[in-house]
Amino acid sequence: MSKDFTALLQAQDEDRYLASVFAAPSTRAGLHALYAFNYEIARIAEATSESLIGEMKLTWWRDAVDDLYLDPARIRRHDVTEALALIIHHLPKVELLSLVAARVDDVSARPFEDLDDILAYVDASATALMRLALRVCGAELDEDQLRSAGRAWGLTGLLRAFPMKAQIGRAPVPGDRLAQLGGSAAMMAQGLGEEKVTEALEPVVKEAQIAYSAFRDAGPLPADAMPALGYVVLVPRYLKHLPTSPYALAGDLNPLGRRLRLSWASLTGR
After folding, report:
1. pLDDT, tens only, 66-113
2. What is the pLDDT of residue 37?
3. Count of C-beta atoms within a 10 Å radius of residue 18
4. pTM for this structure?
5. Mean pLDDT, range 116-141, rounded to an integer
């Protein structure tokens, strides 16, 4: 029997968890396994101060994924790998491995070069995770709408996590724009240059707004896709509640309001 990741996701990835509630129990378990995997690889950079150790941990996960596709599969003793083994037939190997590869720059603390660099990272992480979640649900979505959803959610998440991302050298700021304003990644790591950072973040905020508008304008979300990415409907509320200072902790949404918004989306697709 695979592990129940409900408690983990409620604490660490509640929005995805709440959307997954609208799936059938067997599908929900698959989504939870996928999200638990994403949590494990995403937290490596935050929990590891040495890049070499972080790279070793990512290598372990890459090899663990490789092992699941052997014939017969080799399942490493870990709650997440054991749960992934049950849904591996839904997940293309190259797409699952790309999630691991997307985290390499996190552990190496490479600053983002420009807005395109940030978008590429979001496409390889948030959007790729949504694509895999759709496969678990047996659902399909227009690629343009999927990319817009991933960018809206991914950029918003980076903005909300700015203080922590700045500390590990991965603040979601276009490096070229920040340099033009006389700022640097080292400055952000120390929590300095608030006005410069705020101005440099403007294109990222705008891109998140544009992406969400494109997602919304593409039409209602199909019912079978709701458990995989219905949480994207929360983007406008999260953007509205971004703190004035990028170094301030972002507040959370009202729990009841969040549940009601997701329930409405499950009924209407919007």
Report:
1. 999 999 999 999 999 999 999 999 999 999 999 999 999 999 999 999
2. 98
3. 21
4. 0.96
5. 97
